[in-house]
Amino acid sequence: MKSASTTTLPPAKLAANSKVTTSKTASQGVLRPALVLFVSLTVLCGVIYPLAVTGIGKAVFPDQASGSLIVQNGKLIGSRLIGQEFSATNYFWGRLSATSPMPYNAQASGGSNFGPSNPALIDAVKGRVDALKAADPGNTLPIPVDLVTASGSGLDPEISLAAAYYQAGRIARERKLSVDTVHGLIDSLQLRRSLGFFGEPRVNVLALNLALDRATQRQQPAAN
Question: Could you tell me the pTM of the whole model?
Answer without folding.
Answer: 0.73
